[in-house]
Amino acid sequence: MIRPIAWCLGLLFAAALAMGAVAQEALTADTIVARMRANATAVEDFEAHLTVETYDGGVVKLAQELRLSLLQPDKMRQEYQSPDYLAGNLTVIVGDAMWTYIAAIDAWFSKDLSLLSDAEQPWLAFRQILRHVQDELWAYEFELLGAEGAYHLRGTGTSDEAVYGAIEIWVDPDTFVPSRRLLYDTDQNLLVDARILDVVEVVAGVFVACRLETYDEAGALRSTIVYDSVSVNQGLDPALFAVPEGAAP
Question: pTM of the predicted model, to two decimals?
Answer without folding.
Answer: 0.84
